[in-house]
Design brief:
4 helices; about 170 residues; about 30% helix; Aminopeptidase; binds coenzyme A; about 25% strand
Amino acid sequence: MTQTPAEPRRYRLDATLSGSPALVDGSFRTPTREDLPLLGALMWDAYRGTPDERDAGDGVASAVAEIRLTFDGEYGPFLPEASFVAEEDGRPVAAALVTVWRGTPLLAFVFTASSHTGRGLARRLIHATMGALAELGYDRLSLAVTEDNARARALYESMGFVKVPA
Ligand SMILES: CC(C)(COP(=O)(O)OP(=O)(O)OC[C@H]1O[C@@H](n2cnc3c(N)ncnc32)[C@H](O)[C@@H]1OP(=O)(O)O)[C@@H](O)C(=O)NCCC(=O)NCCS
């Protein structure tokens, strides 16, 4: 497929889950549909101004719609058992949302409130996801990353994700 110059270049990264330790983190919980409005607001806040802003659409409403689509199976069945929300004072501040795309778990979205980045939240959420998936019997977690998203790439690569040949 030919890409227009405006289209960011993406590639797939995979991590092997065998040996991923299950991480029990009492501050994380499973996302539900009741979280949609707050998760949408959080997603827009996190993605706004980053190389992946367009993934959240053009505002809170489209971010809510995107998360609703994720819950509804747009990227394969949503996997609540391996998806997590981090809260502070009862409000979501970061989330990792996982689906199963063609049999392989997909980290569809991970995002941290702009006020809470750099504290290890995304790293801990992804660890929790990997541990939960290993316990469910999966051996791989896949994701798509944008070449320009240096921050996300550094995070994923430090967690053992490697590029999958196209
Ligand atoms: C990418 C994102 C999820 C990271 O969330 P976070 O909670 O700040 O991440 P963490 O604090 O767990 O940081 C983990 C790693 O990210 C990288 N990182 C964090 N802040 C960084 C910065 N300012 N510059 C470069 N790398 C950075 C580092 O590798 C860091 O590792 P370290 O903990 O050893 O320093 C967050 O910035 C975000 O929501 N971005 C917008 C949405 C997005 O791009 N999602 C990914 C789409 S593929």
